[in-house]
Amino acid sequence: MIRQIIVIAICFTAIVMQAGAQGLYIGLSGGLQGMQYQLQNGQSQQLAGGSLDLGYGFRLGSHWDLLTGINGGVYNTRATLRDGVAFTSYQVDDAGSAFRYSVKTAGYKETQQFFAAGIPLLLQYHTQGKGVQWYFDAGGKVLVPFNTSIQVSAAQLVLSGYYPDFNVEVSNLPKHGFGTINNWNSNATSKLRPAAALSAATGLSFGLSPGTRFYVGVYADYGLTDLKEKNDSMPLVTYSSTGISGVQAGSVLNMPNAGQVTLLSFGLQLRLSFGSARPKTNTTKEPQQPVTDTTGNEQYEAIEGPVVFGHLDETRIPENQKSHLDEVAAIMKQYPAIRISIVGHICDDENEPEDTKVGAERAKSVAQYLRNKGIDGGRMDVSPVSESDVMEPFDPLANYRNRRVVITVKNKK
């Protein structure tokens, strides 16, 4: 199973490297990770565990990302039983006689552990800013558990059998499976099935370099579906007709008195995200040829009108700017020798300066719009400005116009 997870992780990485995603991330989570369930005559509690995440973020807007990937985690739970409670089941001895088998415990404890591979799907909201940002993730994940192991111990076991046909209770025949065992240890297993859980996380991220951020926060996973297979008919401790030394643990997870078993985990989360891992393609620019048609200043002026983005961090083409870009596309179709540069600008707003990535996204949006209108991408050079335009004090209109894309004809006559 571990080998399969490694293969899946490698395949996932190869796929997302070719996808239109904005960032690879790796993460480490740790805290209380385990199962929660109601246990009659006992209790369960989560123990320390951790998870390792590998994923990708897909940008949906200036404040929104979609996160997915694969993770692997270890989950631990402790279950204890109240001393002196009798757990009964019906058994048949080696002579074929039916009896009621009774197990009383003192100091009974189970440590239940399993590993799980998960696929999360989270929607992330984050603030803007070059330095510190606040983020909140919400969504769900599917978990596939494997390698379940259960370590069982008890200070004392008292094993007895009641034969209703003879109205006799046997409690001191060790060679026939009835008697007292002190300082008992054993192990068991239980089948767990895939389950779904709600997931949430929140915290702060810190810009380390362009395209690289470090996240620190808290997380929680809450199970929605039952992890336990329906094999809850085993006794707490098995009956051994050859002697009490042969008894084995059955586990509380395999007994009817354990309720629905769901996932519960919460703790601290660290994550490191990187910019787009898509390799840059080295394209040889065609030598610029002067326009040999009858293009005039009127066409140049029509092309070079700015594309203004009204709202802070807006990257989608505003509806009132599409007619201008339609005209640009029409002129470029009419004059196929025209080449243009597309430069995305940002506004240095005094309350919340725009990230330089916003300028890049604006330029990409304009170029994509023109490509959708049939303009070859080789005729367009796309780039952002390295820093924001100078802010004009007490002039909101001027600062509003700084949020724009500038189109320039590169090979005028």
From TrEMBL:
Top-level taxon of origin: Bacteria
Residue ranges constituting the OmpA-like domain according to the UniProt record: 296-413
Keywords for the protein's UniProt record, in alphabetical order: Membrane
Entries under SUPFAM superfamilies matching the protein: OmpA-like
GO cellular component, one term: membrane
Keyword presence, DNA repair: no
InterPro entries, per the entry: Bact_OuterMem_StrucFunc (IPR050330), OmpA-like (IPR006665), OmpA-like_sf (IPR036737)
CDD domains: OmpA_C-like
Pfam families: OmpA (PF00691)
PROSITE patterns: OMPA_2
Name of the featured protein: OmpA-like domain-containing protein
Species annotation: Puia dinghuensis
